[in-house]
Amino acid sequence: MSDLGGDDERDDILALLVELSVMIPEKLARYSQNYYATLGALTARPQSKHSRSRYDQNLLESAVLGLLRSRTSATVSAYAGFASEYLTVPDLPSHLGNLDPIAEGVDYKILANALASITSSSTEDDITRYKSHEQLLWLLAYFIFFRGRQHGPTDTVVDAPDAEYVSVISRLLSYLADEIGARIDLPGNSQGSLNGISSPAQHMDLQLPDFVRSELLSLVNQQNISSLITHSELISPSKGRESQGPDEASAVASYALMLLAVFPRRRDDIRMWLLLGSSSSRKISDGSLENSVPAIKYFWRSASSSRVYELIRQEPGAALSLLRTDTVDAGSRRTPSRLEHGSKDREWRIVLLFLELYTLALRLMDDEEFFAGGTSASAEKPSWTRASALTLGQVKDLTVFLKNLAFTMYWNAAELSGPGNLETKPGIANYFSPSSDLLLGSQANEPSSDADMVSIAGVSGMTVNYIKGMVTGLLRMIYERDSRRNFLPKGHWLMTGRFEMEGFIPAVVAEEESRHQVQEADEEDVNDVEVGAGDSGGDASALIGTHRTQQLRYLERLRLQQRKASRRKYLEALTPRLEILQNMPFFIPFATRVQIFREFVTLDQTRRRNGHVDADQWRFSVIHNAPRMIPDMRRSGEDIIRAHHARVRREHVFEDAFEHYYKLGDGLKEPIQITFVDKFDTVEAGIDGGGVTKEFLTSVTSEAFSPMAGLNLFAENDQHLLYPNPAAVEERKDLLRQAGLKEGSSEWNEPIRDLLQRYEFLGRVVGKCLYEGILVDIHFAGFFLLKWALTGGSGAAPKESGYRANLNDLRDLDEGLYQGLLQLKNHPGNVEDFSLNFTVTDTVSSSAYDSQPGHQPNQRTVTRELCPNGSNVAVTNQNRLSYISYIAIHRLQNQPRLQTSAFLRGLGQIIQPSWLSMFNQSELQTLLGGDSSEIDVDDLRANTLYGGVYVIGDDGLEHSSVQLFWQVMRSLSDADRRKVLKFVTSTPRAPLLGFAQLNPRFSIRDAGDDQTRLPSTSTCVNLLKLPRYSEAETLREKLLYAVNSGAGFDLS
């Protein structure tokens, strides 16, 4: 600044300021803002290369600290000026050379009090009006630095965050959360444009300065975060232990939530440290040690006693007003809540942090601990997770709160994302947002997804959509526990009272049609972008250096994201029933959801087949109306029909099916025709009920999923439940290495691609069974089915509402591993004695057999690190829960990721993922394989068709042999009835909605009057060919012999 003169004049000014700070400190402190503004200008002023000697440095430090060292009635004012004017000067460490002398001379307590006073008495608008975000970033960093220099790193109690520190950091982070979140993980020095796109951000140094970044990252520290609750009496030092309540919990919650918002990649670490910190001991009033309340119960106590929690739990409609951030309900012109805005925000923060922590705790808690409800049957000290478990009564109350909250967030999505509910702040994150007008130059009338911007309780990052996803995920987790072992009363999960159920199914079907129209618009956008990308010939390398082309393509992708976000918001308002069904299906009875699923399939068939749902009518229409029926004008109707017909060898059903039908893609939804041939290429005899689709699909699944078939695509657990073979890809790679193929070459990639295509095809086949309503006798592991159920839910907070691996799911994969990890988790001693580290060993079996007796496959082990440098990270009592979590994620998600993704991709091509999300894992198994309840003979009899001489005549009486058959069926045990049902239909279970839904219908026709002949079947059409037996005993004997001996298709 030229008005401060040259170096000599600057030194004179510094000397004068030092002298004045000694002579009249109290009077000068009243002008501390001017004083430190001048010092700031002097410090930041460019110096000549010979200036800033050690003498100059001492003089400057004396001037900075002089006013702070005097203890007068105006000392706090001096510190306020120092904080607001000097600590907002960027890059002081560079200007001063070393910030330590200043830090050592500052009284941290007074500085903290001054800053707490400034931030608590000023609004964000007040502060940001006078200080830029960049200045506030430096202030935050300096404050963290000064506190670190005041407290030693080893004394946990002393180093526990104090009330002022928590208050100041929380407030400053709330101003800067978007900015920090967008900049802290940027690699390199991001000068200039982002991804080659010009924007206002182009001229900013987007990467945080090293000093600022380092100090911010120091906040994510296990010792400090754990001590938040362990020594929480230090947060409110004026309160005794007994009086600690909502204010203390709210202070901790505000600070913790801001850390979660600013450091989303460290979210699980932060939550884990909060939980673990509470398990230490602390001193109470008489000086003795008492075990602290676990974090879950600490926040549960405050959350469950809050008015926010009570109002939502008791009054289903109260959630809307409590979630809205505006102050008056425009419709009713009344105050929307019985809580003051500030009190409501404080209580929301406690509730939100409790939900964050309980979500993580449930992932780590095994069923035994959960159902123990925080009690221990033994005299030993309970494990941390067992001690953290809520009582089952508390969980029941919590689910009522969550149900009411979740229902409101989906049913009233349009109101919650309306303009009156926005509490947003401009920040650098806008430059990274697909909906940013600054970046895209979009018009004001192009809406964005407001629910992604609305923040609850003034906490950045706690948006409506994020909370919706978190609540959905938590509800599903508790529902899964109740599904495995019922502890809630029958009907507890239903919310049918909130709907008009009489017209519910037609309303949902109409919403699905609306969703499909929006989805088609999204697909058209994607196709347009892909066509644009195709202009370069699909060669990404051709675009290197074509700056303008990259700009346009990137802008187009962002505009596409914006349009999709706008449509998603539109859908939330247009399809509330569908949103609830897909995210919280347990609100609606299972039978209703099954009916809706079948309606969705019929709607899709009608749409795809131009109204011709019947297979023969569709084929006729394709042949005679091909140009209207088929978008691809290059293919004739005959070509389409030919593509849907296959000649399949009985000995190679899966291979022939894959070879012929893989290329159909989602065209497998259309009717297919199969001709079975034997090993002599002779066409099999049999009834072709419009194609032996059912026989074909059951044969494909039987071969593909059978461990004896040698395909090795799926593995079995101890209960013979199936899941994708997690080592399949590695085993294929081993074979390629043995063949000498170069990794990454086309010869290497093609066999791996072929393997994954087989998984994809299997997914389509299973989807085809669901689509056609054909029951198949295959049983999948619960954790695998759970991935089906969690693929089509809300796009909000997918990491919270999507599938997350947990300890309980490991039980379905490997009982031995589950028990071992359970022992590790609950081990009372030092787990370092086990000499474990953060690595995992995978076993890979090669299908190439060695020459030793028994022909056992070659096996090798592969050790993988679970985290960076994991081989050097020992498993300790403090980090064992993280280790267990990493193991679960590796075994259940990472190791089988490619196989599972391929299968689900194929499944999703036939069945919309959003349809699957209407069911939990056990319901999906029932949908696929039928009802496991006792066979209802009366229902089966009422829905049976008869042929030949068994056709019922005008008298309405059944043939005598038919009457004997039903007499025998009644006399059989349920196990034998199931055998008969499987003998005829290929599956031992009834359809979910009764035998009226069996496709094709159960049928009986006569097979002659030879009393020695066995009954036989045509399973492709669910037909029992029953000889005209005259005695019940003979019929029973022959029927059971045929059933148990495997006599079946076309047996004479």
Automatic annotation (TrEMBL):
Question: Is this entry keyworded Transferase?
Answer: yes
Record-linked Gene3D superfamilies: Hect, E3 ligase catalytic domain, Hect, E3 ligase catalytic domains
Coiled-coil spans in chain: none
Identify which top EC class this enzyme belongs to. Answer: transferase
Q: Where is the HECT domain?
A: 668-1052
Q: Which reaction does it catalyse?
A: S-ubiquitinyl-[E2 ubiquitin-conjugating enzyme]-L-cysteine + [acceptor protein]-L-lysine = [E2 ubiquitin-conjugating enzyme]-L-cysteine + N(6)-ubiquitinyl-[acceptor protein]-L-lysine
Which top-level group of life is the source organism from?
Answer: Eukaryota
E.C. designation(s)? 2.3.2.26
One GO MF term attached to the UniProt entry: ubiquitin protein ligase activity
UniProt-listed InterPro entries: E3A/B/C-like (IPR044611), HECT_dom (IPR000569), Hect_E3_ubiquitin_ligase (IPR035983)
Q: Which UniProt keywords apply?
A: Transferase, Ubl conjugation pathway
Pathway annotation from the record: Protein modification; protein ubiquitination
| GO biological process annotation, one example | ubiquitin-dependent protein catabolic process
Q: Which residues does the Swiss-Prot or TrEMBL record annotate as the active site?
A: 1020 (glycyl thioester intermediate)
State the name under which the record lists this protein: HECT-type E3 ubiquitin transferase
Task: Name the species this protein comes from.
Answer: Lasallia pustulata
Lineage, broadest ranks:
Eukaryota, Fungi, Dikarya, Ascomycota, Pezizomycotina
